[in-house]
Amino acid sequence: MPELPEVERARALIAERALGRRIVAVDDTDAYVCRPHAPGEIAAALTGRELTAARRRGKAMWLETDAGDGPVLGLHLGMAGRIVVDDEAAGDPQPDGRPSPAWDRFTVAFADGGRLILRDKRRLGRAVLFPDLDRLGPDAAEIDRETFRARVGRGAAPLKARIMDQAVLAGVGNLLADEALWRAGLSPRRPAGDLDAAELDRLHRHLGEAIASAIRLGGVHTGELIPHRVRGGRCPRCGTELARAQVGGRTTYWCPEEQG
């Protein structure tokens, strides 16, 4: 499932390959992916516009047109989405099988003949005009230490659930949460409000490092812990068999020796 690193790579692809290009047509006929817009509504808003900026907060991505004076297009990768610009793709790192034309849920055609596509086998991605970002917390890759302490280190919710709450911290998904907590040596089940300032600072640092590494290497699946998140898997540092449970409604793996 695409998390912040995958969405950032998709955003970077758009920034590199799609900006400065004029839109001549839009296929927005998939009414489910483009809800609540009627077919043709997004096309009417975007045709004739130029893509001028690609931005992201957490897992949310949006494209500005006409230097911010035109409509804003929000794109969400859902659980298996990829962004394709001409012959390059980024997003979900593990496409399931050979892409089918039926997986192309939303397409922007450019005047030079190229295309930007939201490709999504599971059809859980979204394309929407003027996306609402008000419910998202600060971006997990950009949040400063003091803000992280104030937002994460409070309440009785399990720590993993707290950092995955998109209103608290935008961008952390299931795999990234397990990787960051393992790197920081913190239990995912510990109440978030019990952490002291030093522990919160350690988590902030290791989360940032996990995000940077995943962006550089191609996605959260490249994390050190991730290949071991299987029944019977062992901690890659100490060899202890990993614990497994539901935390915050998500399947969670951690080292009972190093993470308490």
Distance between the termini: 27 Å
Extract low-pLDDT stretches. none
In CATH, the homologous superfamily of the largest domain goes by the name MutM-like, N-terminal
- The best one-word shape is elongated
Number of domains: 2
- Global structural class: alpha+beta
Tell me the radius of gyration.
20 Å
Helix content: 25-40%
Measured by DSSP, the beta-strand proportion falls in 15-25%
Figure out the total of helices. Answer: 6
Q: What name does the CATH topology of the largest domain carry?
A: N-terminal domain of MutM-like DNA repair proteins
User: SSE order, as H and E?
Assistant: HEHEEEEEEEEHHHHEE
Major sheet: arrangement of strands: 1-7-8-5-6
The total beta strand count reads 11
Q: What CATH architecture of the largest domain do you see? A: Alpha-Beta Barrel
Average pLDDT level = 95
- Would you state the CATH class of the largest domain? Alpha Beta
Largest sheet report: 5 strands, antiparallel
